[in-house]
Every structure is written in structure tokens, then in C-alpha cells.
Amino acid sequence: MTPLLSVHALHKRHGERLLFDIGRLDIAAGAAYVLTGANGSGKSTLLRMLGGLERSAACSVEFDGLHLPLYPYPRPLRHAIVYVHQHPIMFSTSVAHNIAYGLLARGGDRRLLRSLVDEAMDWAGVTHLRDNDPARLSGGEKQRVALARARVLQPRLLLLDEPTANLDGAAREQVIALIPTLIDQGASVIVACHDRDLINLPGVQRLKLRDGRLESR
Amino acid sequence: MGLLEATTGAFALLLRGDAALWHIVWVSVKTTLSGLILATPPAVVLGYLIAMHRFPGRRIAVWLAQAALSLPTVLIGLLLYLMLSRRGPLGDLGWLFSQPGIIAGQCLIGLPVLLAFTLAAVQALDPRYAETALAHGASRLRVMFSVLHEARYGVMAAVISGFGRVISEVGCALMVGGNIEGHTRTITTAIALETSKGDFAQGIALGIVLVTLALAMNGVLVLLQGDAHNPGARL
Fold first, then answer.
1. Do A78 and B134 touch (CB under 8 A)?
2. Mind listing the pLDDT tens digit for each residue in A147-165?
3. Which tens digits make up the pLDDT trace of B163-211?
4. Which residues of B fall within a CB distance of 8 Å from A153?
5. In principle, which of A37, A185, B32, B138 could form an S-S bond with A41, CB 3.0–4.6 Å?
6. B230 to chain A: which residues are within 8 Å by CB?
């Protein structure tokens, strides 16, 4: 099976310290992965590099049969891969406008925009927050809005950085419940996490960063 | 003339709508706003670019931007005078002792204030705003507009500080404008002139206008900041 994304010779240093050195990473289309590793092992950095938010040394990727550099981040990847922060930040507009942000930025069909946003809000269970000020949302609500904001773009690969970190109780369960539905919709998903309930999701492949190497289990 | 007498005379001048006085106010407001309108877009874009990008010499650029804040306006006036004088490189423009000359000076005086304050406002902003915009497929231009929108209160403070610095400066307007009555006389150059002539009433009247303008501009900022937590664009 041809992978959606193949990354070759991905490495990162913080000064003299080698954070990781990954010979090859293949991400299959429609597959889900959890990325684990100790704090400081480079999980977030790896996701940020794949999402084009972190500079990477000479490293090439194959995406949809195209050979591309990872830095400067190429446009085909920018439109196919969405990274979601551990603590998502909301623009100071309304919740609905936040969810529409990527659609507006990409200049999609404006007639479709409202129905896509409505559908994404319904999916994330945030319809009642539509016109609210995002600054007043709880951590769990922000995370669900961020997932809706990413999902509405129908990314080929979704990078979720510890989506349940600092959440507990119902907020955490609501976020966990959304992730399998993202996978079912055909997007490839990589979730960096420590959360046992996410690690044990059925059908999820496990990747672990240990001592600068990526282990596949 | 005592302070009380001068102040009473100042209010009388303001209330009876003294044409010469209000023309001076008009010249000041016109040249200040024109200078700011010209300075704001390049200063804000430059401030954003310096704040957001890492490049060789960035620290020198930040240092220069901040150091330019303390440039005496009279020095800017002197340099501009030399540029605009008949033998200067821009002498053919014929801007010396004219309102366009004052506007050029106001633009140069406002630019460092706008740049340094915008730089500080963007630098203080959470980097996740720009990252979120990028991660959701925004172009570099859209990222800039999104970041500046989030930093808008800082940018507005920059504009208001620029307004304050420009409208209250006297050195450059005096040197480049020449303080010509009915043409290039501004509030500050008029205050300097009238005070030297001993006509304190007009000086105080213009001072009251200057303070009122500064209060009004800052009042606008306070009102806008008070609205900061209301959600903006709706869908």
C-alpha cells in the first residue's frame, strides 16, 4: 500500500543535543497512530515539523507521489495537513468564525461555508456556542472547537498534540469520543498523547519516541 | 498679563470662533493626520516583519527602531531642511516652507513610534496565533492580517502614541514649515511664537485645543479597549 506521506531522514537537534533521528516514517492513508514517549522526547516537535511549524534540516517527503522538501513547507502539504495545538488558541472573533477560519483563508465556496461550519459545530457539540466569545470557553470546549476548526477543512492528515492534556471528567471524555469519528471519516490521524484511553483505541497503530529513535509497535 | 486674565482671554478666543486660531488648529490636524496616514502602513508592516521573522541583523533592526524613538524632532527637521532646501537632493519638490514639507516631517517623526510600538505589540502576542493561521492554510498575507487583528489594541496604541508625538512636536514643523501665518503655522509653532510675543491668551487657547485632542484620541482607545472581550465578526 502506498503511504500517504513518507518522511525520510528527519532529525532535530536542540543545540548539541540530538532530539531524534528518524530514518523513515510512513503514514498510511486513513490510518490512525498514537505517538507516545517521555516528556521532552520530541513528540510535539515531531508533529510540529510534520505540520510545517518547526524548521527541519534537509529532509524530504513523498506526498501523494510528489517528492517535496519539508522546509520551506510546500503548499500541497499546507493544504492537506492540519496541526492542532495542545492548548488551542482562538482568534478573538466568534466561535463560528473561528471554525470557518481555514475555509475563509483557503477561499472556498462561500455558499457552502455556512453549512460546513454548522455541520462541524454539530459534530463537535458546540452549536450552542456559535456566537460566543471564544475567550470565555472552557478548556474542553476550546479543544472541541479546535477539532471542528481542523475537521471542517477535511485534511488528509490531522496532527493532534495531546488533545486531552489538562482535561478531566466529561470534557476529556467528549474529546476522546470525537477522535474515532475523525478516523472513521478517512483522515489519517497522529495523536501525541499519554492518555491510556487514547492509546488503547481500537485499530490504532502505536509509535514511540525513545532515545531519539522512533519505534513502531 | 496674569494667568487668570490670559486663561479668560483664551476661552474667549475659543468660544467666539476666532478664524485665525481655528485655521492653525486645522493645519495642525491636517498635517498630523496626513503624516500618520502615510507612516502607518509601512511602519506597521515593518514592525510586524521584524517581530515575526528571524534574520541576520534583526537585533540591530530592533535596536535602531527603539533608538529612533528618542531622535530629537529638531534633528529630523534639520535633516529634512537640508534635503528640501534648494540645493538639497529633494529641492526640486519645492516642499520647503510648505504643508507637504511638514507632512513629510510628521511622517518621519511618527514612523519610529508606530514601528517600535507595533513591534512590541506583535512580539508580545502568543505565537500560536500565527501558527494556527499557518496550520489552517492561511497565506503569509492572511497570517499577517490575522496577527495584526489580534494585536489591534497595541497597534491602535501605537497610532495614538504616534499622533501624540507628531501633533505636539515643534522643532521639525518650525524648521521645515517656517511658521508662515495662514499657511504653515501649526498649534505648537504658534504657541512658541505667541508666547515669545507675550500673547499668552492665544498660546493657552491653542494649548487647550492640543490637550483636548490628546484626551479625545486616548478616549477613543479606552472605549475600544473596553469592547475588547466582545466577540467580533459573526458568521
1. yes
2. 999 999 999 999 999 999 9
3. 999 999 999 999 999 999 999 999 999 999 999 998 899 999 999 999 9
4. 136-137
5. A37
6. 133
Catalytic residue among A141, A162, A173, A215: A162
**Beta-strand pair A32-37/A204-210:** parallel
CB–CB contact A96 B232 (8 Å)? no
Any chain A CB within 8 A of the CB of B225? no
Q: Among this protein's residues, is A54 annotated catalytic?
A: no
DSSP symbol at B116: H
Distance, first Cα to last Cα, chain A: 18
- How open is the CA angle B233-B234-B235, to the nearest 5 degrees? 125
Q: Give per-residue pLDDT as tens, B90-129.
A: 999 999 999 999 999 999 999 999 999 999 999 999 999 9
Q: Report the predicted TM-score, pTM, of the whole model to 2 decimal places.
A: 0.90
Instruction: Give how far A92 is from chain B: nearest CA, Å.
Output: 6
The burial class, CB within 10 Å (0-12 / 13-18 / 19+), for A68 is: middle
Tell me if chain A has a CB within 8 Å of the CB of B156: no
Q: What is the pLDDT of residues A83-136, one digit of tens each?
A: 999 999 999 999 999 999 999 998 878 788 999 999 999 999 999 999 999 999
- Residue B168: alpha-carbon gap to chain centroid: 9
Asked if A154 has any chain B CB less than 8 Å from its own CB, the reply is no
What ipTM was estimated for this complex? Answer: 0.94
Contact B140/A at CB under 8 A: no
Domain extent, residue A136, equals 5-216
Strands (E), chain A: 5-14, 17-27, 32-37, 60-63, 66-69, 81-84, 157-161, 188-192, 204-210, 213-216
Total tally of structural domains belonging to chain A: 1
CA distance A117 to chain B (A): 9
Q: What stretch of H or E contains B200?
A: helix B200-226
CATH of the domain at A91: 3.40.50.300
Q: Which residue type does A63 have?
A: F
| Structural domains in chain B plus CATH codes | 19-199 (1.10.3720.10)
